Structures are given as structure tokens and as C-alpha cells.
Amino acid sequence: MPVYVYQSFQINQEKFQDALSNLEAIKAYRNEQYDHDVKLLTPITGADHTYVLLSVYEGLAELELQNDKMFNDEEYVELIGKFFLEHIIQGSMQTQILREKKYEQKEDDEE
Fold this sequence. Notes:
The chain has 3 helices and 4 strands, in the order βαββααβ. By secondary structure, it is of the alpha+beta class. The protein has one domain: 2-Layer Sandwich (Alpha-Beta Plaits), CATH 3.30.70.100. Strand 2 and strand 3 form a beta hairpin. Helix 1 runs antiparallel to helix 3. The longest helix is centred in the first third of the chain and has 18 residues. It is globular.
């Protein structure tokens, strides 16, 4: 069952262009090097500088495995470290782990 990791954060406005470049590099690196899909979601409405990284994993075990790989990868740690330290507003990141709920209708309920 797929697991979705939804990470929202506010970008530091003083370094906006650098932050977007860093985010694109993080997204590209993760999509190329690891076995999960990452999308960068940009705001249409709401807070203008709130962005989201949406990652999709095959399940909780895959999420754990990929996270272990990422945080043991020096190149990735350097990319993400710069982002956390220089490009987001401290305390603005929120992470949610979600899964899709599939409801099965019983035959008795169909009547």
C-alpha cells in the first residue's frame, strides 16, 4: 500500500531563487538516486512562500529503507543540510505521513 510523505515549509524570501534551485536539485537527486517518486508542489493560493515536497513510497518499510540510504549519502546530506539551514524559515516545516484508505463495500451494504 503506497505511503505519501507531505512536507510543507516556508521559503526564506531573501534567498528565494537560491532556495528554488536547491529544491529542484534535491528533487532531481532523489528521483535519480532512490526508489521513490518526489514532486515539488508550488502554491496557487494561500501563503505565497509555502512549498511542499510530496514523496511516494511503496510502503512504510520502503520509506524506512530509503530514508536510511538518503541520510547515509554524503552528497544528499549536503544538499538537504544547506536547504534546512539557509533556505527555510525555522520552525515552518511540517511533515505528515499518509496512506490511501481503500474501502470495500460488503454485499449486504449494496442493497
